[in-house]
């Protein structure tokens, strides 16, 4: 039989393509690269990459915090001996460039032609403990940076190789943890923070959560499919189609060299629940025709003819919803939008090739539910339709009130992000980071590029004094808890040449004194802190610091005030400055979030408008379709505002994705309505018939979508949690609007012209 041979050929081709996909999926890797979240193509990113090439990245470090035993201080000899042992151990590890610790911090003193580094702490000499502790508290840069203000904890700072990847980073962290355990340090008594720590934790959790989400989704969807179709093939065939699409999508992603990150980890779950729509519409229509006694072959042909057009349009609108994320300058969001959008189209292809081929080769199913009992859905949907129309004034009034309240509440949404946005406030990793904010300088890096005006060097006295003025503002007004710059170096050298006395830690009084100091600075140039703060030719300097992670809203205000201060108090003929750094780049994403979201939504709305205009050639019908899909979006925006959920990188994708998915059922509904109007003169009867035909698939697909997205609420990442919760709520509100507002609006505003519509429309044959 030709159709059977065609089915076998289709299955063979698809099997070969799937085998290729398996090969590429086997090579897929998980990755969390902090740098990927910088705004691609931004001039500030190019500037920072050049800047970090000269001075190094500002986040290539790990902070190790050690708490002193209960009732004791960090100045106890036994504790300091342990700190010193750990410092030496870490310094010997691969990929560790330099270690800064309370036990290797020294006060340099120049005598004759030599430099003597006198340690601040002497754990082997207990009699000097009081003297050492007094000196530490008098020395700038130690308390609050290496030693806590209450003397109950210390920090060891590990400077690592640039852009250290996960495997060597994990090895380093494991070695440190193992040594801590060997020395008897309990997990509760030490804290780790830094990019390497976040990178390690995020990737490990991504792997674990991806398996959990997929398992929960499979169980949930399997249950809903069984409840809907009550046949083994009604469960297995949709699963095969969607899992095949996921395999192809991940294989394509791997072939393009893209790894799974915080965003693309959502692709399998997203595709699993979204991809079910077409298969459910096909099987629902197929079962309906079989129930009317149509042969298997004719049922399949009718199904493909009537569902193909609507499914094609819905796949297009859903994929566009994801493709619009490519307007983002954030690479993980761009990749997520691109490959999920492609995968949605691949699902459509498999739904109309693999699914029909399998249905064709299976024997005609014996329906477990007889035809006369199979129309219980018609009874339920018929009563719903009558109730909605009888209460249309209430439906419209309630919708209007919800809309007004939601718009008012949505105005409270703020765009705000922090460095560890996606971890909940009680997450152990976030608590470790907070430890350094509560007891030390914090974890948020700050960078200011210093360029002397032409004809000057970084060691020019006027340049240094202007830099010192900026330092003073940053510590007193901006909130930096730790700061280092060329001023720090010159002050340190001056102190060293004056016997290491603390009162000599200041800038020179004259150019002549500064000239003498600069000529001797070569004695210190090999020290890592010198290389990291001034270029060898003194043509450029770096002002670096750390502070608590105040969030992007507060950071934007601080940066605006800083720029105003620099304009008013800096002389560009002496020193030119530019704010840069990784935290500054992450903050810049906020400037693009709103624009990207508006752009994505606009593209979605324009595409849906064009589709409806092409189908009905009616602006009124366009509004009829858009309103039930925009209302849920606005309601969820109101929920966000009411709950205080901030707009950030992870939540910015919610509205474009939700609109693209929600409009899917509307497209199915109006495409069926278009076909029904070809045979039915009465608009009321056509809408009612479409309501009964499409209602079951709309409800089932919406339940699967809501249920599938609800699995994401079990994520330990706040961003993933809110994506699941808010998209699920949008789709839930969407199906209610679909079954209430949509028929009311169609009957109220669409002007039906039977004579024109009864003419055949060849384009609908696809």
Summarize the structure.
This protein has 766 residues and is an alpha+beta fold. It is 62% helix and 8% strand.
Describe the protein in words.
The protein has a four-stranded antiparallel sheet, with helices on both faces. A four-stranded antiparallel sheet has the order 8-9-7-10, sandwiched between helices. It has a two-stranded antiparallel sheet with strand order 3-4. It contains 26 helices and ten strands. Among the domains are: 160 residues, Multidrug efflux transporter AcrB transmembrane domain (Multidrug efflux transporter AcrB transmembrane fold); 146 residues, no CATH class; 141 residues, no CATH class. The chain has 766 residues and is of the alpha+beta class. The C terminus is likely disordered. Helix 21 packs parallel to helix 23.
């Amino acid at each position: 039989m030709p159709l059977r041979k065609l089915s076998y050929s289709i299955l063979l081709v698809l099997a070969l393509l799937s085998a290729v996909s398996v090969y590429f999926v086997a090579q897929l890797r998980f990755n969390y690269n902090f740098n990927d979240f910088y705004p691609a193509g931004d001039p500030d990113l190019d500037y920072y990459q050049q800047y970090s090439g000269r001075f190094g990245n500002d986040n290539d470090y790990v902070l190790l915090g050690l708490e002193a035993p209960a009732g004791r201080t960090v100045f106890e000899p036994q504790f300091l001996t342990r700190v010193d042992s750990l410092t030496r151990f870490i310094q010997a590890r691969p990929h560790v460039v330099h270690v800064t610790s309370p036990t290797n911090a020294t006060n340099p003193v120049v005598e004759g032609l030599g430099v003597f580094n006198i340690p601040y702490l002497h754990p082997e000499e207990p009699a000097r403990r009081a003297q050492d502790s007094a000196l530490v508290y008098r020395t700038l840069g130690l308390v609050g940076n290496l030693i806590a203000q209450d003397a109950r904890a210390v920090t060891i700072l590990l400077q690592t190789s640039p852009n250290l990847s996960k495997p060597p980073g994990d090895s380093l962290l494991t070695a440190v943890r193992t040594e801590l355990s060997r020395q008897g340090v309990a997990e509760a008594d030490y804290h780790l923070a830094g990019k390497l720590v976040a990178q390690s934790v995020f990737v490990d959790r991504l792997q674990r959560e991806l398996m959990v989400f997929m398992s929960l989704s499979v169980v949930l969807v399997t249950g809903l499919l069984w409840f809907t179709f009550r046949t083994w093939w009604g469960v297995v065939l949709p699963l095969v189609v969607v899992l095949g699409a996921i395999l192809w999508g991940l294989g394509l992603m791997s072939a393009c060299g893209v790894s799974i990150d915080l965003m693309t980890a959502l692709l399998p779950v997203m595709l699993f629940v979204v991809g079910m729509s077409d298969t459910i519409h096909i099987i629902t229509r197929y079962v309906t025709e079989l129930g009317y006694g149509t042969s298997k072959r004719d049922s399949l042909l009718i199904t493909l003819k009537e569902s193909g057009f609507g499914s094609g349009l819905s796949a297009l609108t859903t994929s566009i919803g994801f493709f619009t994320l490519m307007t983002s300058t954030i690479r993980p969001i761009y990749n997520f939008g691109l490959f999920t959008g492609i995968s949605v189209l691949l699902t459509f292809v498999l739904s109309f090739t693999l699914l029909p081929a399998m249905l064709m080769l299976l024997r005609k199913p014996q329906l477990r539910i007889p035809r006369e009992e199979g129309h219980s859905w018609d009874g339920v949907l018929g009563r719903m339709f009558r109730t909605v129309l009888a209460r249309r004034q209430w439906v419209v009034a309630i919708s209007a009130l919800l809309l007004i309240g939601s718009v008012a509440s949505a105005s409270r949404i703020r765009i705000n992000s922090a460095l560890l946005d996606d971890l909940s406030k009680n997450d152990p990793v976030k608590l470790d980071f907070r430890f350094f904010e509560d007891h030390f300088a914090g974890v948020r890096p700050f960078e200011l590029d210093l360029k002397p005006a032409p004809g000057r060097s970084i060691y020019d006295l006027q340049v240094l004094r202007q830099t010192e003025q900026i330092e003073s503002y940053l510590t007193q007004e901006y909130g930096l808890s730790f700061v280092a710059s060329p001023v720090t170096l010159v002050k340190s050298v001056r102190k060293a040449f004056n016997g290491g006395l603390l009162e000599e830690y200041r800038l020179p009084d004259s150019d002549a004194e500064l000239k003498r100091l600069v000529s001797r600075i070569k004695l210190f140039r090999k020290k890592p802190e010198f290389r990291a703060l001034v270029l060898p030719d003194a043509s450029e300097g770096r002002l670096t610091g750390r502070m608590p992670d105040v969030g992007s809203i507060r950071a934007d205000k601080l940066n605006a005030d800083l720029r105003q201060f620099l304009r008013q108090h800096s002389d560009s003929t002496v020193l030119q400055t530019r704010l840069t750094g990784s935290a500054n780049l992450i903050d810049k994403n906020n400037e693009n979030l709103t624009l990207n979201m508006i752009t994505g939504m606009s593209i979605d709305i324009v595409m849906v408008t064009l589709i409806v205009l092409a189908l009905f050639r009616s602006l009124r019908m366009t509004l009829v379709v858009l309103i039930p899909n925009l209302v849920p979006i606005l309601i969820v925006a109101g929920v966000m505002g009411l709950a205080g959920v901030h707009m950030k990188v992870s939540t910015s994708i919610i509205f474009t994705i939700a609109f693209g998915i929600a409009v899917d059922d509307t497209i199915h509904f109006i495409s069926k309505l278009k076909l029904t109007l070809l045979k039915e003169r009465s608009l009321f009867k056509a809408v009612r018939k479409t309501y009964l035909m499409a209602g079951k698939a709309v409800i089932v697909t919406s339940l699967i979508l809501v249920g599938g997205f609800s699995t994401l609420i079990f994520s330990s990442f706040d961003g993933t949690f809110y994506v699941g919760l808010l998209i699920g709520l949008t789709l839930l509100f969407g199906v209610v609007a679909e079954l209430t507002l949509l028929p009311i609006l169609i009957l109220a505003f669409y002007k039906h012209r039977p004579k024109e519509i009864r003419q055949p429309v060849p384009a609908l044959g696809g």
